[in-house]
Every structure is written in structure tokens, then in C-alpha cells.
């Protein structure tokens, strides 16, 4: 039987908090927004210095209709998770990596950014203020969504004169409606996610808007999501709408190299390290779409999707199935277990990746 950790036995010994949110059913969590108590907010004007951030009640924000983010898409986001352990402590996973990625993206988008220390501090504050919304162990996690946007008014195309940084959170379960079952992908031929020299390698909001059309069409045909090819050769794998992709052949795991058109996923980077530690050879390189035919397994990685096994990929009308027991490949299963047990505090964190609150 497939041994995913989510249904961990740890739940039975967990004592719910007195102030657990009314009406929440931890067993029903998917990846939809659940409004929580507080969000973090800070602003920065032309001088590049952010004001002292504060926690404010979660709610709508006021924006000028001519805000840079609304008119010209000057915005970035991040995603990370907090897990509650069976000892009722809270673990963040590599938050400084999200901070560094936002700094890199802000440079590309002509925006000021918080320092790594300020970012991590803001994440900690927001998580602690919303502690009661962190699901019990084995039931999910608290998804943390930092946003950086040009909130100042512009009319002509230019960087905004003011920026707002916000963090909001939501308890989440599995990302795909398939839950932990394998997902079915469609290789996209007409649309591309990114071009060389563009912004594919940063977490700008526009990258996600641009995939919606192909993703909706694929979902309407019953697929879980779309796998993109590079826009120059139309031949090399890039990524899925919301996650990175890996293929497995024997003891070798390959994933598209980071070259400006691929999002440098933190889960991607972590899985590469975990796999190498477990004796796999991991190659970051051009991965041709033809290699899908020959692969033993394919899986996706991302903060939201964690490690998702792929059950089939359809390319030019041909469906390529991937096997394993219940369709779940053993390599994906092993890497999922190793990563999540570390993130949930079930095994010792020898990598030094978790931050305890
Ligand atoms: C994440 O995995 O955290 C992301 O930012 C992807 C998003 C589409 C949910």
C-alpha cells in the first residue's frame, strides 16, 4: 500500500487548542482560501525604506485605480508553509530562501524589497498571530502568501512611486483535487509560459495569469494541469503551471535547468539535495519531451503541490502512462516521505532547513 505521511498517526495524540476556529473541518481542507485573523502590512515610498510593519485584521485593501500593480502588473508573490508538530511547536521551511527569491524578483521588476531578516521576521509575526489556523499535525499546513506590489499611482509606464508588502495566510490541504493520487498532465503545444530574456524565472504575478487559458482548456478536457515546452525549440520541458517537473530513469533523476525561463522552486532545490543524499544522480539539464516516453516516473514539485506523482502525460494525442503501485512511482513516494517528514518535524532536520517558532 502507498504510505503517504499525511494520514499520520500523530493526530490521535494531538490536543486541539482552546481557541480552535469555529466551524473549521480540518479533514476537508483543499487549496481554497480560508480567511484568517491577521495580515501583515508595510509600505515604502520613493526612498526605498519600508515603514515599520504591523499586523492588521485580515481584510480588503484600498488601492488607487491607477496603482502600478493593477495597470502594469508590477507585483511579485511568494509561497511557503508552516506546519504544526505533534509537540505543538511550529515549523517554517527555508523562509530565507523565499526572502532571497523575492529580492531577486524585485530587482528584475524595479521594486524595493524587504531584507531577508525583515522578511523572515514578518513571516514569523504573521504565523504566530494566526496560530490557531495552523492545522493539526497530519491534516495540512498554513500556507503563507507574501505579496509585494506597486501600490502607488502611475499613468505613464514607469515604476510606481509607492510599494506595499503584505502577508496573508490560509490553512490548506492538498493542492490538486486528485489529493495525493497521481495527476494527469497535457503537454501544451500552442502556448508558452516564458521566453528567454523575459520574466519566467521570477515569481511575478503575470506569469501565473498567462497560463490560465491553457490551464482552463486542459482542465475542461479532464487533465489536472499543463506541462509547458520551451518557446524556442518547442521541444524541451519547462514546468507545469504551478510547479517544477522531474523525470526518473533508473537511479537518475533529471529536471530542467534554471536558465531564466523556469521558476527556481525551493521545493525543487530541496528535492535535488534530498535525492542526491539518497544516492540518486540528479541532472539539471535540457530535458527533451521525447524522454517522457522512456521515463520510469515523472513527478512535480512545489510549495503548494509538495511532491505530486504524475500518472500520465498526453503529448500530441498520445497518452503515456506511468506505473507503480496505485500509479504512484516509488521514487516520488520516497522523496515525498523524506521531505514532508522533515517539514513536519517527524524526522531530525539534518539539513538545517526548518525554523522553529
Ligand atoms: C506555490 O507553490 O507556493 C506557488 O506559489 C504556486 C501557486 C500557483 C500556488
Automatic annotation (TrEMBL):
Gene3D superfamilies: 3.30.470.10, D-amino Acid Aminotransferase, subunit A, domain 2 (3.20.10.10)
Protein EC: 2.6.1.42
Chain positions found as N6-(pyridoxal phosphate)lysine: 203
MF (Gene Ontology): L-isoleucine-2-oxoglutarate transaminase activity; L-leucine-2-oxoglutarate transaminase activity; L-valine-2-oxoglutarate transaminase activity
Recorded GO CC terms: chloroplast
Keywords from the named record: Amino-acid biosynthesis, Aminotransferase, Branched-chain amino acid biosynthesis, Pyridoxal phosphate, Transferase
Chemical reaction(s) catalysed: L-isoleucine + 2-oxoglutarate = (S)-3-methyl-2-oxopentanoate + L-glutamate; L-valine + 2-oxoglutarate = 3-methyl-2-oxobutanoate + L-glutamate; L-leucine + 2-oxoglutarate = 4-methyl-2-oxopentanoate + L-glutamate
Any Pfam family: Aminotran_4
GO biological process, one term: branched-chain amino acid biosynthetic process
InterPro entries: Aminotrans_IV (IPR001544), Aminotrans_IV_CS (IPR018300), Aminotransferase-like (IPR036038), B_amino_transII (IPR005786), BCAT-like_C (IPR043132), BCAT-like_N (IPR043131), BCAT_family (IPR033939)
Cofactor: pyridoxal 5'-phosphate
Family the entry assigns: Belongs to the class-IV pyridoxal-phosphate-dependent aminotransferase family.
NCBIfam families: ilvE_II, PRK13357.1
Name of the featured protein: Branched-chain-amino-acid aminotransferase
Originating organism: Aquilegia coerulea (Rocky mountain columbine)
Amino acid at each position: 500500500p502507498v504510505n503517504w505521511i499525511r494520514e499520520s498517526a500523530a493526530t490521535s495524540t494531538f490536543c486541539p487548542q482552546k481557541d480552535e476556529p469555529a466551524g473549521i473541518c480540518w479533514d476537508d481542507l483543499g487549496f481554497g482560501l480560508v480567511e484568517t485573523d491577521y495580515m501583515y502590512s508595510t509600505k515604502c515610498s520613493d526612498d526605498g525604506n519600508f515603514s515599520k510593519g504591523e499586523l492588521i485584521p485580515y481584510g480588503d485593501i484600498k488601492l488607487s485605480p491607477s496603482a502600478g500593480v493593477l495597470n502594469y502588473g508590477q507585483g511579485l508573490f511568494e509561497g511557503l508553509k508552516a506546519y504544526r508538530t505533534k509537540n505543538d511547536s511550529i515549523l517554517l521551511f527555508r523562509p530565507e530562501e523565499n526572502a532571497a527569491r523575492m529580492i531577486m524578483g524585485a530587482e528584475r521588476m524595479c521594486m524595493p524589497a524587504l531584507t531577508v531578516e525583515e522578511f523572515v521576521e514578518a513571516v514569523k509575526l504573521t504565523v504566530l498571530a494566526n496560530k490557531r489556523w495552523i492545522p493539526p499535525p497530519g491534516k495540512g499546513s498554513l500556507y503563507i502568501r507574501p505579496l509585494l506590489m506597486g501600490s502607488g499611482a502611475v499613468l505613464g509606464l514607469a515604476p510606481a512611486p509607492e510599494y506595499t508588502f503584505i502577508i496573508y495566510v490560509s490553512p490548506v490541504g492538498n493542492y490538486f483535487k486528485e489529493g495525493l493520487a497521481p495527476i494527469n498532465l497535457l503537454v501544451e503545444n500552442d502556448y508558452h509560459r516564458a521566453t528567454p530574456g523575459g520574466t519566467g524565472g521570477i515569481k511575478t504575478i503575470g506569469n501565473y495569469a498567462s497560463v490560465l487559458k491553457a490551464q482552463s482548456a486542459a482542465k475542461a478536457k479532464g487533465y489536472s494541469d499543463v506541462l509547458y515546452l520551451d518557446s524556442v525549440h518547442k521541444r524541451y520541458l519547462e514546468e507545469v503551471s504551478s510547479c517544477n517537473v522531474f523525470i526518473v530513469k533508473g537511479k537518475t533523476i533529471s529536471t530542467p535547468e534554471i536558465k531564466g525561463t523556469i521558476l527556481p522552486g525551493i521545493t525543487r532545490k530541496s528535492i535535488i539535495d534530498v535525492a542526491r543524499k539518497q544516492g540518486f544522480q540528479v541532472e539539471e539539464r535540457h530535458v527533451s519531451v521525447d524522454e517522457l516516453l522512456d521515463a520510469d516516473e515523472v513527478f512535480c514539485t512545489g510549495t503548494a503541490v509538495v511532491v505530486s506523482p504524475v500518472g500520465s502525460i498526453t503529448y500530441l494525442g498520445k497518452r503515456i502512462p506511468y506505473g507503480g503501485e496505485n500509479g504512484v512511482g516509488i521514487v516520488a513516494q520516497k522523496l515525498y516521505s523524506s521531505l514532508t517528514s522533515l517539514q513536519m518535524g517527524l524526522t531530525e532536520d539534518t539539513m538545517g532547513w526548518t525554523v522553529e517558532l
